[in-house]
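During the reporting period the student researcher (J.K.) took over the structure-prediction task from the postdoctoral fellow and processed the backlog of single-chain submissions. One of the processed entries is reproduced below for the supervisory committee.
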Amino acid sequence: MRYCWDGFSLDREGALLTRQGQHVDVSRKVLDCISHLIEHRQRVVSYDELIHNLWGHNNVTNHQLSQVVLTARRALGDDGHTQRSIRTVSGQGYRWVAEISEVADNAAAPQAQTPAPDVFSPVHLRPVVPEPESSLPPQAHVIASASEPRAAASAWYRSRTLIAVAVSSLILAAAASGTRQSRQAEATAIESPTAAVAAGEPLARIEEALWSGRFEEARDGLATLPEELVDSPDARILEFKLDVERGRFDQAAEKLALQQTRAKVADDPVWRAKLLAAQSILNARTGRPADEVLAPAQLAVVLLESAGSAASPQAMGEALGARGSALMKTGQFEPAMQDHVRARDLLLKAGDNRRAAVARASLARTWMRMGRLADALGQMIEVANHARQSHDTISEIASRNTAAKIQIELLRRTDALASTQRSMELLQSAPDSVRRARTMQLRALVLTDSGRLREAASLLEEVDAMDRTTGKERRSLTIPAMYHLASGRDELALAAAAEAFVEDDANDKTNLILENKEGALLLWMVAAQNLAANGGAMPVPSPAQRKALQQPESSIGHIARGRWLWSQGQSKEAAAEFRLALEQAQQTNQPYRMLLASEPLIELLLQRGDWAAAEQVLAKLRAHDPERLDQNYRANLLSLRVALAAGDDAAVTSAYRNARALAGERALPADVVKAYVHQAPPLTGTPHPKDTARLSP
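J.K. obtained the following structure tokens:
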């Protein structure tokens, strides 16, 4: 039985959808979706029923289902507005509404054509286990590869030429028979893409699905590729990338080894280069040493340079990106930056904005490591804008979130509020995004920094209520610690920071907003000192924490170590650690870290009674970016402390008003409020009720 409507014909048993006799290329899941809706068109099909029918289990989100329905609508020339075929019944499911006629199986149906044999079929190859590229002698391999003739004709290109000739013959035959068809059929044929474009479209759709994190769609697309594309190099590389994205590294390695063998047999330098770039990515994702990440990427670039015009900008861009990322792992930031800039410019010139956006993001990460945060922010905003223009919600959320983290580091609170607000708006159209929890946490952090504690608490509570087994992206454990510190809940902050220290197994220096091991350690030390200052016992660091305190790796680590030394009565050594951290943060142009180093240093100096030295540190901090620091609550709180110590009545009054205006729902520290209340001579005005409440027993 076949179902027919509006020029479409669906043969369920033959798994064939046609329009005006022309095959419509859709995945099996999309075909099953259309079939199930047609077969139950007399009623509404619930979301759960459709999910169970398509996936065979219920561990699937409504967002994944909506993507399948959207693809089905597009294949039928329908959309979410007209809903001529598939209608959404809000809160219930979907219903088929187009008028259907049923045709017997013996009616004429399009016949499938037998595909030409593929020269890359495994039966044509002997099973050969390839040697890992990284085990080859580096210099000899690079030189030998660079000498390969640019015009070498590979088996892949020969097979592609044969396929193109065959397709051209089919097009000519179709054109000859088209003169006997109706005018409507001719119009449909004119609207159809050429065979060459149509052949590339499935791969482009799969690649788009991969970029957007729609892995089920990518898997289905690979499973339903036309025969002439199934075993093509690009299809196999996409299959490899899907395995990598889903964490199936062993399967990815096996597939990559087979393709490397085929590429060597085909003597195709371009194909080999693509696989080497993929090998570099796999080595990086599986934690291989930096030199094993760099070696295949380096060879990939050499091969493509030797291939000349045969190498596409896309292939060269990906190889340069892989090498740039590998160079960054080895600490070679300048060469890494040059590779990413070259990749970006090459892809922009070729009009490949999608890959150019990936190159921009990689360049931004490199600049972050180099301390060029303003440049990195500019690149991330460009990535976000491209994603917005492309309606790529997932990519825009990711880039907006990264931009927000950089804005926090640059003390651009208003900009960070705008970035996270945009991300929250985007979640409305991507409710099941794996970045949902992290986006909400990041928004909570920016709200905390703005003194909007109740809003921040609501978001963090919602994140805690989520099922921790859903999504792939690990949630931040340092953000709750920062919220608890701002709320005066030091014991909760101490516990959250301790958990974050255990969970963060590395000090990734590209991480911002204290989201690494040393950041968690610093938050733990702040909470511990607060507890001790309020009359409690000083918490004892664990052996692992103590080891990290003895061997700081960054400015954040030096601040944590300084606080620990200070708590042990070694104020001179602590001051030296704080000054070193302040200098390092200033060199890398990171005002947030400058503030983190200035806070304990100024407090320590005031504790000694050296308010003049404290004033110098404050002046040095404020000179870096006066406009931003004037709008920062913590910087104004430091100004208030120094003014109180100096006894400058006018400065005290001004600093208190500024700090109070920026505090929002935060209460000023009790010692500061107490000093303000007892300041002599008496000051005009009274403390805010929220501040005086902290002085109550």
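The committee noted the following: The longest helix spans residues 155-178.
J.K. will present the remaining backlog at the next meeting.
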